[in-house]
Amino acid sequence: MLTVSTRHAIDPVSAKALDTKGLRDAFHMDGLFAEGQINLVYTHYDRMIVGGAVPGGAALVLDHVKECGTASILDRREMGIVNIGAEGTVSAGGSDYAMARGDVLYLPMGAGPVTFAGAGRFYILSCPAHHAYPARLVPIGEAKQVHLGEAATSNKRTIYQFIHPDVMPACQLVVGYTQFHEGSVWNTMPAHLHDRRMEAYLYFDLAENARVFHFMGEPSETRHLVMKNEEAVVSPPWSIHCGAGTGAYTFIWAMAGDNVDYRDVEMVGMEDLR
Ligand SMILES: O=C(O)C(=O)C[C@H](O)C(=O)CO
Ligand SMILES: [Zn+2]
Questions:
Q1: Domains of the chain: total
Q2: Can you tell me the ipTM of this complex?
Q3: Which of 100, 147, 144 is nearest to 120 (CA)?
Q4: 210: buried, middle or exposed (CB in 10 Å: 19+, 13-18, 0-12)?
Q5: How far is CA 72 from CA 2, 54, 153, in A?
Q6: I need a labelling partner for 122 at 20 to 30 A (CA). Which of 105, 157, 173, 177 fits?
Q7: Domain with 12 in it: what CATH number?
Q8: What is the mean pLDDT of residues 158-166?
Q9: Is the whole-model pTM more than 0.95?
Q10: For ligand 1, which residues put their CB under 6 angstroms from it?
């Protein structure tokens, strides 16, 4: 079964006035991963689609999505898929890709219907594309690593860049995930902004009772959302996006927009956060 919901783009003036439910309705995404279902959220932030596919006992096929206005979802889009579950297979464009936990798959524009099978829990990201680059399965050993933070500031972490210009070409999709060293809980702190790209975070590997307090908003108007395991949040281009966990977690970040330069960010000074 396929479900698709829509998130419209919210401006910073409107966002200031939202209460907890309003913020969650606008930015928070849950229920993406349900056995036997493909659940997508079509956002109007650079038209990024965020979703999940959990085939369980029977293969699931992702093909026509009315919101995209094309016969098949990848007719004018590219896609990144991250397996956060056990071994599974994704098939597209006449090829089968066996995906272990943590593997990332890039599928280009024109790859056709996408089939999900096996015990995988597949996180899906898709944005408009203008060129068909080669499909590629990227295991963690082929990702580029960036080491950031310190144990003393509880933010020592390794950023793994998969769909990234230093690893492989893509049109506008940039995808990777961030793992923490023991005891570090803060992601993306010091915080940053990137007006030329939206971003979406999926928090996973959380224990049942653990939560991530995710911070968003303009630096002078921050708000928080409390996130459980396998919940996602969309970050508008005007918003910071960072968080602290009450326990261990991993998060997948994905961006789309005007450029693919990961370093094209504006750092936010601690003195500017409110
Ligand atoms: O922990 C971090 O710092 C990140 O992973 C940052 C994200 O990758 C990001 O926000 C990229 O713009
Ligand atoms: Zn960012």
A1: 1
A2: 0.99
A3: 100
A4: middle
A5: 13, 20, 46
A6: 157
A7: 2.60.120.10
A8: 98
A9: yes
A10: 148, 157, 159, 178, 187-188, 194, 199, 241, 253, 265
